[in-house]
Design brief:
This protein is an alpha+beta fold and about 300 residues long. The protein contains six helices and ten strands. It folds into two domains: about 140 residues, MutM-like, N-terminal (N-terminal domain of MutM-like DNA repair proteins, Alpha-Beta Barrel), CATH 3.20.190; about 140 residues, Helicase, Ruva Protein, domain 3 (Orthogonal Bundle). The strands form three sheets. A four-stranded antiparallel sheet has the order 1-6-7-5, with helices on one face. A four-stranded antiparallel sheet has the order 2-3-4-8, with helices on one face. A two-stranded antiparallel sheet has the order 9-10.
């Protein structure tokens, strides 16, 4: 599933052709994706101007002039393609011909900017929904999401507070969208490695003893928490700058492949030498909560 950096690069690729532009025509070429389309889905989109294109966790959110919000999720294999009348491509790092079957072009937005924005989803785990902005706080898909890891409010104190008293593993805590929104398996593995913290470490160790005993606010963030937050910021910003990771189905909106995978320190590097300076450990993989965890047992404690 595309993670936060991939969704953010998609947002930035769509922004120039969608933000400030009117949806002249919308096509839903089937009745459903992961969920059925609303009966008034097309009617609430056509003729509406997109006043802003944002992101919340792994969701794209298009603000409409009507007061509605178009909520979009890429699912496992969803991607957007931007087609311009003059044939110009949106900016990207490296170009690779797209191989997606056009039979899976399920939703098309014809914009007043002259571009067509096509949503392709072979596995149909993605979804779209139009929601009134004043109802977003009650939307089940968004309710309970934790802070944005790149937001101003997310810091070591907030992470320590969220993990205080938790006896689950640190990796499991970071993958919990209620603790922090948008992190997925790849970037959790990478952030833990950069902060030299074991994925098996107990999450409560991010908070001082008082917080661990009470499980409530009161414990101060430990050095582990500070290192981890710095690592999360670093790995996400680097991945966004690189255009995301070309793992499985992820592509930018112009068909280019993100190249952050060339910067992986541990993910998908089982059996290779750890890239931490001075460490001669070997990257190992084990299954944790049903997902592959990559780590260096020597430098991650």
């Amino acid at each position: 599933m595309p993670e936060l950096p991939e969704v953010e690069t998609v947002r930035r690729g769509l922004q120039p052709v969608m933000e400030g532009s009117k949806i002249l025509k919308a096509e839903a070429r089937r009745k459903d994706l992961r969920f059925p389309f609303q009966k008034d889905f097309i009617a609430r989109l056509e003729g509406r101007t997109i006043t802003g294109l944002g992101r919340r966790a792994k969701y794209l959110m298009a603000d409409l002039g009507s007061g509605d919000v178009l909520l979009m999720h890429l699912g496992m294999s969803g991607s957007f393609r931007v087609l311009k009348q003059d044939g110009a491509a949106t900016p990207g790092q490296f170009h690779h011909p797209r191989s997606e079957d056009r039979a899976h072009d399920h939703v098309v937005f014809h914009m007043s900017s002259g571009a067509a924005v096509v949503f392709n989803d072979p596995r149909r785990f993605g979804y779209m929904k139009v929601i009134a902005r004043n109802a977003l706080d009650d939307e089940p898909l968004l309710r309970g999401l934790g802070p944005e890891p790149l937001g101003n409010e997310f810091d070591a104190a907030m992470l320590a507070h969220s993990c205080a008293g938790k006896t689950t593993s640190l990796k499991a805590a970071l993958l919990d969208q209620r603790v922090v929104a948008g992190l997925g398996n790849i970037y959790v593995c990478e952030a833990l490695h950069r902060s030299h913290l074991s994925p098996r470490r107990i999450a409560a160790t991010l908070s001082t003893k008082s917080g661990q005993r009470k499980g409530v606010a009161g414990g101060e963030p430990t050095d582990h928490a500070k290192r981890l937050v710095d690592a999360i910021h670093s790995v996400l910003n680097q991945a966004i700058k690189a255009g995301g990771s070309s793992i499985s189905d992820h592509r930018l909106t112009n068909g280019d492949l993100g190249y952050f995978q060339h910067s992986f320190q541990v993910y998908d590097r089982e059996g290779e030498t750890c890239r931490t300076s001075g460490c001669e450990g070997i990257v190992r993989r084990f299954t944790q909560n049903g997902r592959s965890t990559f780590w260096c047992p020597k430098c991650q404690k």
